[in-house]
Design brief:
alpha/beta; Rossmann fold; Alpha-Beta Plaits; 2 domains; 8-stranded mixed sheet; 4-stranded antiparallel sheet; 12 strands; SPP-like_dom
């Protein structure tokens, strides 16, 4: 049991009939965190508090942040409730939120992942090969820390032609070594540099948010036809295309907009609430 403690989760349904997946940074949580945005979160929470039981769904975050970073942002935004489950560090970690706000890891998911020492050794070999053989310098995102199953770097853009070539090389080298790789354009609103890409190495078993979403569907015995998801950036696209109803929120990045058409009108939690009301109507007072 992890000692970290979140706010209590939304009420649990008697039977889980559907699942809602949300990216966290710049989707559920706006880094600007204005008074209006905090009010919008509370309006979404009010809806989720009633609807989760009435319509039998569980909601979870699938995020690149770790649980400590999440808790800090939860406090910053004044969130009163937590989701039912949290898939942190790009879905390489799965936690269920208990009634008291403590989080419990899903042991079945942990067993699917490789030995973490072997993963880190292989990832180091990939980064070294990229630097020594292809002159691709990746800058460690040390300010966010490196987790057991996620090693994240920045790739800084020099030219469009060179960047396209380097991205292709990174994908090929990672695949050769059997390591999962996520590459997407950085979002300055989330605190990233402007002219850079996020480069995240993860186990191939957890490569993409869709992988952990598929696991959660299996875990809760929910068919993919009964799923929704919300995101804002390039690393959410696989998730949005996996679920039955996937939406970019109104503040989505230009990269994400070029890859996915379904969008909400509202930004952040306003957009989430907009679509949840369409799918889950007649919420009792």
């Amino acid at each position: 049991m992890h000692t970290i403690q979140f706010p209590p989760p939304f009420p649990f349904p008697k039977q889980t009939r559907s699942l809602v997946f949300c990216d966290f940074d710049e989707t559920y949580f706006a880094h600007e965190s204005t008074a209006q945005q905090r009010k919008d979160i509370q309006q979404l929470e009010d809806f989720l508090y009633k609807a989760s039981q009435q319509y039998g769904f569980q909601i979870g975050w699938i995020t690149g942040s770790d649980t400590c970073q999440l808790l800090s942002k939860v406090k910053q935004a004044g969130m009163r409730f937590s989701p039912h489950f949290i898939c942190s560090n790009l879905g390489t970690e799965v936690f269920h939120v208990l009634m008291d706000g403590k989080i419990e890891p899903n042991q079945c998911w942990k067993k699917r992942l490789p030995n973490h020492y072997e993963f880190q050794r292989t990832t180091d070999e990939v980064v070294s090969e990229l630097k020594n053989m292809y002159k691709i310098d990746l800058v460690s995102q040390s300010q966010y820390g490196q987790s057991v199953y996620k090693k994240n770097y920045y790739y800084f853009i020099r030219s469009s032609v060179l960047t396209a070539y380097h991205i292709n090389v990174m994908k090929q080298v990672a695949a050769t070594h059997g390591v999962g790789l996520n590459i997407n354009r950085c979002n300055p609103k989330a605190g990233d540099p402007e002219y850079a890409y996020d480069v995240d190495f993860v186990p191939k078993e957890a490569n993409g948010k869709d992988a952990v979403a598929a696991f959660m569907c299996h875990w809760f015995k929910v068919h993919v036809d009964d799923t929704l998801a919300f995101g804002d950036s390039g690393n959410d696209i696989k998730l949005l295309k996996f679920v039955k109803h996937g939406y970019l929120v109104g503040n989505a990045t230009s990269e994400a907009r070029s890859k996915h058409e379904q969008m909400t009108k509202g930004s952040y939690t306003k957009g989430i609430l907009e679509m949840l009301k369409k799918h889950y109507t007649q919420v009792t007072e």
